[in-house]
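Possible regression after last week's pipeline update?

I re-ran a chain I had predicted before the update to compare outputs. Posting the input and the new output here so someone can diff against the archived version. Not blocking, just want to make sure nothing changed silently.
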Amino acid sequence: MIDCGEGTQRQILKSGIGFKRLNHILLTHGHLDHILGLAGLISTFMRWEAIEEINIYGSRHTMERVDDLINGVVLRGAQTPMAINLLDIKPGVIFETEDFTVRAFPVEHRGSSSLGFRFDEFPRRPFLPEKAEALGVAPGPWRKDLVAGKTITLPDGRVIAPEQVLGEEKAGTSLVVVGDVGKPDRLLQYVRGADALVIEATYLKEETGMAQEFGHTTAGAVAALAKEAGVGQLILTHVSRRYSDEEILAEACAVFPNTSLARDFDAFIIRRE
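New output (post-update):
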């Protein structure tokens, strides 16, 4: 999960996603509208004991505020049934899974030591079932081993190498998520070529001065970033209710047509193509 605003645990319950696999929370910065929900979330975990540990990532500035919130307000010396790890991170690779890496990068927003996050899936070679069938490799563990790059031996003694059933290597999918940002043009190197960019669009261009004063940006500015960076899809968040959805989308789409405005419980599938 990225950021944890007020009422997050209630929205998780409404969504039906559940808590059991929620063990990594990445925080863009420490402003209350991005961390306040941690109080309710930790309280929920303490009651339900639904998880063994939870890792919360953010800059030192962010972690100091989170420490005050969790240990000073919520726990106040109480013991928790799960480990809560507050991880002070810096720009660079945060962690890797079998499928992708997560990198943090600096974001300018009112001196808050903000971070953005980029998820890059590793390149992969697609499995070609028609070739496997032609070679007599039945569905099951054999195919799984071949996808994992292992050579197999069939009952008839034939040896099948991964190269016989895998296609050409393809680049993985990439996703960039940015919270609040004052100068989106400075993010170009970090978002370039992403298949999807999730980013704030608090203001419209008619109030650019106000956006700059409060360290935010406009729908038109982030659309210009998406266009220059060659991203595949732009998803807008953190919008002001002073504007209608249509106004926000109109400004962004005029610059970058493949723009969506995220709403609670929306689901997006990000594909390389």
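Follow-up from reviewer: compared with the archived run. Residues 1-89 form a domain with the Metallo-beta-lactamase; Chain A fold (CATH 3.60.15.10). Marking as no regression found.
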